[in-house]
């Protein structure tokens, strides 16, 4: 079994004997640029330009855990900030700010 990923946001699991795709996993929202099986072969680790690293169980290909970095304004309280437009407030919230 080998794994691949690419710009379509899917991880593909391949049967190396038959040469066909046996499983297609969706879980990222960006280009998947890294796939690796764990040394024990029980897990598949994927990384994407969405900034998320995911760990999958190889037995059933269910998601075990996701790791995400903090966004630039994560947990920044903008409740008492004045002079911001609605668009700026929405942008800051998208980047992690709270109000």
Number of helices: 1
Alpha-beta content class: mainly beta
CATH architecture of the largest domain: Beta Barrel
Order of helices and strands: EEEEEEEH
Low-pLDDT windows of residues = none
Task: Kindly report the CATH topology of the largest domain.
Answer: Thrombin, subunit H
Query: Any idea of the CATH class of the largest domain?
Result: Mainly Beta
For this entry, what is the oligomeric state of its chains?
single chain
Task: Tell me about this structure.
With 99 residues, the chain is mainly beta. It folds into 2 domains: 2-67, Thrombin, subunit H (Beta Barrel), CATH 2.40.10; 70-99, no CATH class. It has one helix at residues 86-94; strands at residues 2-5, 10-15, 20-26, 32-37, 43-48, 53-57, 63-67. Strands 4-5-6-7 form a 4-stranded antiparallel beta sheet, with no helix packed on it. It has a 3-stranded antiparallel beta sheet with strand order 1-2-3, with no helix packed on it. Strand 6 (53-57) and strand 7 form a beta hairpin. It is elongated, with a radius of gyration of 18 Å. The protein starts with a strand and ends in a 5-residue tail after the last helix. The model has no long low-confidence stretch (mean pLDDT 91).
């Amino acid at each position: 079994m080998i794994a691949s990923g690419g710009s379509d946001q899917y991880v593909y699991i391949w049967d190396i004997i038959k040469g066909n795709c046996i499983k297609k996993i969706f879980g990222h929202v960006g280009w998947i640029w890294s796939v690796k099986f764990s040394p024990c072969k029980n897990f598949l680790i994927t990384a994407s330009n969405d900034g998320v690293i995911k760990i999958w169980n190889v037995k059933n290909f269910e998601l075990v855990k996701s790791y995400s970095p903090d966004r630039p304004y994560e947990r920044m309280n903008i409740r008492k900030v004045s002079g911001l437009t609605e668009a700026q407030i929405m942008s800051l919230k998208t980047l992690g700010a709270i109000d």
